[in-house]
Structure formats: C-alpha cells, structure tokens
C-alpha cells in the first residue's frame, strides 16, 4: 500500500510537470503590485510547461472578462453576490485615509471623512461603491474633488497635496513607510475591504484554475 501511494504521488507530480494547458486570470492593480510576481513564480514552479496570461484591471472589468470567457479566475474587491458568479472571500483588510507627507498621523472618526477633499475612483468601482455605502449608512456625504481610477495616479496626486484618498492599507503601506504618504486610521467604525476569488458557476474549473485558486488561498493564509 505504501509503495502504491508513493507511485501515485510520483504520477501526480510528473503529470503536473508535463501539463501544457493555458490559464487566463485577472488581478486588480493594487493586488497585482503586491502579490502578482509571487503568484506567477509559484504557478510556474508548479506547472512549468503551462502558459499563463495575467490581466490587470478594475474588479468591475474583471467581472466582464469572466462572463465573456477571457479569464477563468479573478481576484476581486468587494464583489457583489451576483447569480452568475461563485464568490469566495479570501480575507478583508482595513482601509485608511491617506494624505500628503508632512502631516502627523492621527485617527479620524468616520463622520470626519466629510471634511476631507477626496480623490476616489469613479462609480461603479468596487471601492467607491463600498465607501459611498458606508457614508450613506452613517448619514454623511463625501466631498469628492476628483474621480481617479488609477491607484498609482491617486497616490501621486495625494502626495502632491491635491487631496486625500481612502485606500486599502496593503496598497499604501510601503508608501507610508517611505514617508511618501501619511496614513490616518479610520475608526468608529472602520472600513474594511473584502478580497475574493470569483469564477463562473456554470463553468467547470480546469486543474490549472483550481491550482491558481489554491495558490491564492495559501499565499494570503500565510501572510
């Protein structure tokens, strides 16, 4: 029996090494910058002869890519529970108010966000939708001065002193550590952004797609 199990394990490893299929996946920009290279490297180590195509786009656009078959798996922010998708939350992370360098870091109550000129992505961006929902639930309106969908451009605009933004902490932690931006904690209540894996319910996932999902789960579980 032991010999049989060892032979089976060897067969699985060898079949993975020989797999020549193709996988197309999607990542939002903030996630791609942070974990994209590690996920790509681990996938290649697991499936060295398979081809991988990685698209980077907003969560709403990645939904469209799933629906028309351009990608098989997407990592998305704050995904709505739509009938067509199988959505599995991976983790949630706190969002912070970010400002230009030179300010003292402080805590800001949720109602205090109304006093800041904000640079946020335009609707229907998932983060904008989440922040608008939180504002409505707490009875205040956002003061949005610019709609900017690019995370990198948003951070540069904030660093230039043109306003503030509300971003996932993971997307700005390096900038805060380097003094490029200042992070202010949001409290009473805080805002949390949920990162999920999304696939189509009526599509059978390939071995490569299942492997990519497992890599994502393992990566964030070990953080």
Automatic annotation (TrEMBL):
<dbReference type="Pfam" id="PF03466">
    <property type="entry name" value="LysR_substrate"/>
</dbReference>
<feature type="domain" description="LysR substrate-binding">
    <location>
        <begin position="18"/>
        <end position="217"/>
    </location>
</feature>
<protein>
    <submittedName>
        <fullName>LysR substrate-binding domain-containing protein</fullName>
    </submittedName>
</protein>
<dbReference type="InterPro" id="IPR050950">
    <property type="entry name" value="HTH-type_LysR_regulators"/>
</dbReference>
<dbReference type="InterPro" id="IPR005119">
    <property type="entry name" value="LysR_subst-bd"/>
</dbReference>
């Amino acid at each position: 029996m032991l010999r049989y199990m060892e032979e089976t394990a060897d067969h699985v490893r060898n079949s993975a090494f020989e797999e020549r299929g193709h996988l197309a996946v999607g990542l939002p920009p903030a996630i791609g910058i942070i974990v994209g290279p590690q996920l790509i490297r681990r996938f290649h180590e697991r499936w060295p002869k398979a081809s991988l195509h990685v698209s980077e786009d907003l969560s709403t656009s990645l939904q469209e890519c799933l629906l028309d078959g351009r990608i098989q798996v997407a990592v998305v922010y704050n995904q709505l529970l739509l009938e067509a998708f199988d959505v599995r939350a991976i983790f949630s992370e706190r969002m912070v108010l970010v400002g230009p360098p030179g300010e003292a870091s402080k805590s800001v109550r949720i109602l205090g966000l109304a006093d800041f000129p904000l640079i946020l992505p335009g609707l229907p961006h998932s983060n904008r939708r989440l922040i608008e929902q939180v504002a409505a639930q707490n009875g205040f309106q956002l003061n949005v001065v610019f709609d900017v969908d690019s995370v990198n451009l948003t951070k540069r605009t904030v660093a230039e002193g043109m306003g503030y933004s509300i971003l996932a902490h993971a997307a700005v932690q390096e900038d805060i550590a380097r003094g490029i931006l200042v992070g202010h904690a949001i409290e009473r209540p805080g805002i949390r952004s949920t990162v999920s894996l999304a696939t189509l319910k009526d599509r059978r996932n390939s071995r490569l797609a299942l492997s990519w999902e497992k890599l994502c789960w393992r990566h964030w579980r070990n953080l």
